[in-house]
């Protein structure tokens, strides 16, 4: 029997959701949940406890939205009705709003399983309230220090939360991230590791932005035999012997094909799966690897996982391709929000391009609102030097457009190729006007700049609102 306060919270949340959209105050993806929790703080716990197949949570610094959407599509193709915060509202209010939107006034959910992308800081509370059967932790990088603090602070909070999980729960961890892999030590829950084994993708180019360089057990600096980017790689402690756990799910071979796609060969206990992923970049391949690990853990047939990933389209703003009108230019939007994500996005853009051929057309939009992180010093840690000699035209926009222009200049981009247009709509027009026929405009926005951009694209009729995707 659901208590009256919970029923009142559900009703209030549903009314708030309808009003938010009708009054054009937003998509109703967070506020209804926040409001409902003021009436009954247990509303999320009550609603999710009735899900027949429980809850899966995914957290990490980069790749949350894309990976969770991959998993959601895998579940949907397996005929599982999935409760999913698809719009990316990943704080507790957003998780609650998602549950409310998919519930009846009686409190019954129209879903079999819950799947929530979860903000790093919100993961402990989400674990406590939803009692998940599955938790996937993707990676941990320095991001928005004004909100989260250092990576060790986040990792400690995660460890305490995961320690509360029972033996019948499963935790999936990225074995190539030392801070994440170490979370599996001593858990009562079952632990599954996934990782990259293809040594061809090793690089030391971004070692200066590594965050977890020291042994989690004794504090000595790790020795790396392979480094893929930042602190992601194959590591071992020379003093205490702590090392990268052997992965259960292995990305044994990865062939990247520029900004178009990649071919993956993944092995797992008892079999293997080959996938042509229609998303570019090493980081998207690792997103897909985490999704494969989740699908296998949830007993989804491998053939169905493969078919889903090969038909996958990216989440809004995450390697999203948009046309400027029916017959207009192609734009590729790739969210950047921290040094590692920005560096890997740039690396994807320049992959296979000659260093002295200025052919890239970019629009980079940098904001410093709360949701972006108010400290933009991370721009100086990102590897924008890869753009030197490769930029034909760089339009920079957003609240911190001037900062980005200076960063590009010091990265070696010819200042004559940099145009500062603070207003985002005007910047988009300027970038498209200078784009030669047949070329792609690569747009790199921070989070709120991406939302501003998509609102502008929606106003022009080129995309739907993000909560409608």
Describe the structure.
A hairpin with a 6-residue loop joins strand 12 (318-323) and strand 13 (330-334). The protein has helices at 4-22, 31-39, 43-48, 64-77, 92-101, 123-130, 145-148, 151-162, 178-181, 282-297, 302-310, 339-350, 401-411, 424-433, 447-459; strands at residues 55-59, 82-84, 113-117, 134-137, 170-174, 190-196, 223-229, 232-236, 249-257, 261-268, 271-277, 318-323, 330-334, 360-365, 391-397, 418-420, 440-445. The protein folds into two domains: 4-310, 3-Layer(aba) Sandwich (UDP-N-acetylmuramoyl-L-alanine:D-glutamate ligase), CATH 3.40.1190; 318-468, Protein-Tyrosine Phosphatase, Chain A (Alpha-Beta Complex), CATH 3.90.190.20. Mean pLDDT is 91; it is low at 144-149. The strands form three sheets. Strands 2-3-1-4-5-6-9-10-11 form a nine-stranded mixed β-sheet, sandwiched between helices. Helix content is 33%, strand content 21%. The radius of gyration is 22 Å and the shape is globular. Helix 2 (31-39) crosses helix 5, helix 4 (64-77) crosses helix 11 and helix 10 (282-297) packs antiparallel against helix 11. By secondary structure, the chain is of the alpha/beta class.
